[in-house]
Design goal:
The complex is a heterodimer. Chain A is 24% helix and 19% strand. In chain A, the strands form seven sheets. Chain A has a seven-stranded mixed β-sheet, sandwiched between helices. A four-stranded antiparallel β-sheet of chain A has the order 10-11-22-23, with helices on one face. In chain A, a hairpin with a 5-residue loop joins strand 7 and strand 8. Chain A is globular, with a radius of gyration of 25 Å. By secondary structure, chain B is mainly β. Chain B has two helices and 16 strands. In chain B, the strands form five sheets. In chain B, strands 1-6-7-10-11-16 form a six-stranded antiparallel β-sheet, with helices on one face. A three-stranded antiparallel β-sheet of chain B has the order 8-9-12, with no helix packed on it. Chain B has a three-stranded antiparallel β-sheet with strand order 13-14-15, with no helix packed on it. In chain B, strand 2 and strand 3 form a beta hairpin. The longest helix of chain B has 16 residues. Chain B starts with a helix and ends with a strand. Classes of the chains: A alpha/beta, B mainly beta. At the A-B interface, strand 1, helix 11 and helix 13 of A face helix 2, strand 13, strand 15 and strand 16 of B. Strand 1 of chain A pairs antiparallel with strand 16 of chain B, so a sheet runs across the interface.
């Protein structure tokens, strides 16, 4: 009987499973480190290769600027700061820095970012942006204004880093790429005049870093609040010469009682404020612009989410004439978001509350139903940056809360381009939350309206699935 | 007597993988049958179900060739906000039992096995796998005394996989598996199973 004996070779062209996810390469060769909340001890082995250490100091190798390209193709440059500047071991310990592969603090207190291999979906935000701020390696431009370091005009400015949920959106490729945001604000004059406009635009772009920015100047302290000049490119400040369809409009403009010597708690003064705005035509002007009834050269806002600051007079938003004008205009109201200010970014673990100056939602349903709250702080501290050489002072206001929501709207519209402006606004309203607010679980809708704007909730499915 | 033993051996080899999924091991199996038939120089005149499975409620989806495609998830958390969860199990519930079968034919002389298979596919609300047909042939030739060379070819034809998105209240489309935006989803399915191979065999008296 013959029997089977030697099997010499088998080859095949069998089909195989495709794709299968990506692998992550350990940063810097998989160096390990120990996390501690007290006094972490770092040894030379935890530093990237090329670093030198002695008993007390650590010197970084020469590192060039790092450009990180996100999943959707947009990119951001973070710098190496003071490359090669030694820092103290005790600095790391004092700051409880858990991962010195990703960043360190230099001996001159400037953050000195270090990084490993880039994540294909974006940087490892949890480590790279763990410090409260990042410093850019070179100036950036808003409406033709040059934003630099305050201390060295050749360097870039320092910003607070975005919230974790924004970073998470970025790492998923949600940067607002391709969405056009128009910031209607003040860009003329000097000092605070253009700081206001640049700051609001800066906030939108720090939330939606991939969005295209545009500006329209209404002129600081203008009595008419009407547009000055044409729509401009938000980077160069040059007039745009072709019609641009805006996905989002941020309007951090409005009537100030405190600036006019009027008292919003007096009905007669409220009536006066409405008369002032009506007399100079501002309400009608902007209603007609935002509703599309008045054509503005090279501008289309007929399907834009309109984000309006609530005002800083600690009164009902219904007392702010432009809020009232927009909320009662059928061409705008379904796309309108009215934004009050909180004192910080709220989370479920670190709740926030309404800023004392912020207007509240009030009891007028067509306003309170479209009212959200967001962080009203500027994204920098005094001394962090200069605009065209003028040091910019940090500040707070609903003017700075509104552009955060405008940035959220841009993120939303990027990935769901089938949504019109009305639906986009409704999603942000329907997904707002109270559980990040200190009032929770007894939040008053006449104060907080629909609650804190939440980009993570807005990106997730709403309602039942089918 | 020897002939009977050989026929029994071949039959046992042929029936060994019955009830097994028609995966890539199938090609080894039919090659064994082909070679056993050729070495014994017998025509076993067999038609046998070389592979047979019938599945109803599944926990995962596979191609007709047995390659894993996707799970059949139940509760899914949004990739953007883990507190947002949805029960998507109904979207992946299959409407009919799935039948997957390959018949082996050794009817055309020693060393030749013809394989014909059928997969009924799957139809769920958010995922479907079309019906597929398997065709294969294995043949073993004797090169010289005690030396054989076997060839085999096989391929599933059809079995196209398609998915549809979950849609929320605002008509936004999501991939049901992890609730990321449908526009972000790039399907990556296993290729249609096919094989071509050969095997060299030497026997000893």
């Amino acid at each position: 009987m013959k029997f089977l004996a030697i099997l010499l070779a088998v080859t095949s062209l069998a089909g195989c499973a495709g794709g299968g996810g990506s692998s992550h390469i350990p940063v810097n060769g998989g160096l390990s480190y120990t996390t501690s909340t007290s006094t972490p001890t770092y040894t030379a082995s935890v530093y990237p290769s090329g670093w030198t250490t002695d008993a007390t100091t650590v010197k970084a190798p020469s590192v060039s600027a790092k450009i990180t390209t996100y999943k959707d193709g947009s990119s951001v440059t973070v710098e190496d700061g003071l490359s090669g500047t030694p820092f103290l071991q005790t600095t790391l310990s004092g700051l409880s820095i858990a991962d010195p592969n990703s960043y360190v603090m230099s001996s001159t207190t400037s953050y000195d970012l270090r990084w490993g291999l880039p994540d294909p979906n974006g940087p490892g935000f949890a480590t790279i942006f763990s410090p409260a701020k990042i410093t850019l390696d070179s100036p950036v431009f808003y409406m033709g204004k040059t934003v630099t370091s305050y201390t060295n005009l050749a360097d870039g400015p320092t910003f607070y880093t975005p919230t974790q949920v924004v970073k998470a959106a970025w790492s998923s490729g949600w940067t607002g790429k391709g969405v056009n945001i128009l910031s209607v604000d003040s860009y003329a004059g000097t000092g605070m005049d253009f700081h206001h406009g640049v700051t609001t635009m800066m906030i939108t772009s720090l939330v939606a870093i991939g969005a295209n920015r545009y500006g329209l100047d209404f002129g600081w302290n203008s009595t008419t609040l009407t547009p000055t000049g044409n729509v401009k490119d938000g980077v160069s400040g040059a007039d745009i010469l072709s019609t641009t369809h805006m996905g989002v409009v941020n309007a951090s403009i409005g009537f100030s009682y405190s600036g006019s010597g009027l008292n919003p708690s007096l009905s007669s003064d409220v009536a006066t404020a409405f008369d002032v705005v009506a007399a100079n035509g501002a309400g009608t002007t902007w209603k007609n612009v935002f509703s599309g009834r008045t054509a503005v050269s090279y501008l289309s806002v007929s399907d834009a989410v309109i984000v309006k600051s609530a005002g800083n007079d600690a009164t009902s938003s219904a007392n702010e004439p432009l809020v009232h004008a927009f909320a009662t205009d059928t061409g705008i109201s379904s796309r309108l978001l009215i934004v009050g200010a909180t004192t910080s970014d709220g989370t479920t673990l670190s709740k926030t509350s309404l800023a004392s100056y912020s207007n509240v939602a009030g009891n007028v349903s067509n306003i309170s139903d479209r009212f959200l709250v967001a962080n009203g702080r500027s994204p920098y501290d005094t001394g962090d940056l200069a605009i065209d050489g003028y040091g910019a002072a940090a500040g707070s206001g609903t003017s700075y809360a509104a552009p955060r929501v405008a940035g959220y709207a841009a993120l939303l519209r990027q990935k769901f381009p089938n949504l019109n402006a009305s639906k986009s606004a409704s999603i942000l309203l329907d997904t707002a939350r109270y559980d990040t607010l200190s009032c929770y679980p007894n939040c008053n809708p006449s104060i907080y309206g629909r609650g804190g704007a939440s980009i993570s909730r807005a990106l997730a499915p709403v309602g039942s699935l089918r | 007597m020897k002939g009977i033993l050989n026929r029994v051996a071949i039959a046992l080899i042929a029936l060994a993988p019955i009830l097994a999924w028609a995966d890539s091991n199938y090609r080894h199996h039919v090659m064994n049958v082909s070679m056993a038939s050729a070495v014994s120089d017998l025509e076993p005149k067999l038609v046998w179900p070389a592979s047979l499975s019938m599945t109803s409620d599944v926990t995962s989806f596979d191609t007709a060739g047995g390659d894993y495609i996707l799970p059949s998830p139940k509760n899914v958390a949004s990739a953007y906000d883990s507190e947002i969860r949805h029960d998507v199990s109904s979207f992946y519930r299959t409407k009919k039992d799935r039948i997957n079968m390959i018949l082996g034919f050794t009817l055309w002389g020693p060393g030749t096995v013809i394989s014909v298979g059928y997969d009924s596919g799957v139809k769920a609300e958010k995922l479907s796998i079309k019906r597929a047909l398997f065709l294969g042939v294995n043949h073993t030739v004797r090169l010289r005394k005690n030396t054989y060379l076997g060839f085999g070819l096989g391929k599933w034809i059809g079995g196209r996989i398609s998915e549809t998105p979950c849609v929320d209240t605002y008509d936004r489309e999501y991939w049901c598996q992890n609730l990321t935006a449908w526009s972000e989803y790039v399907p990556s399915y296993p290729k249609v199973y096919q094989y071509a191979g050969f095997r060299f065999l030497k026997t000893f008296d």
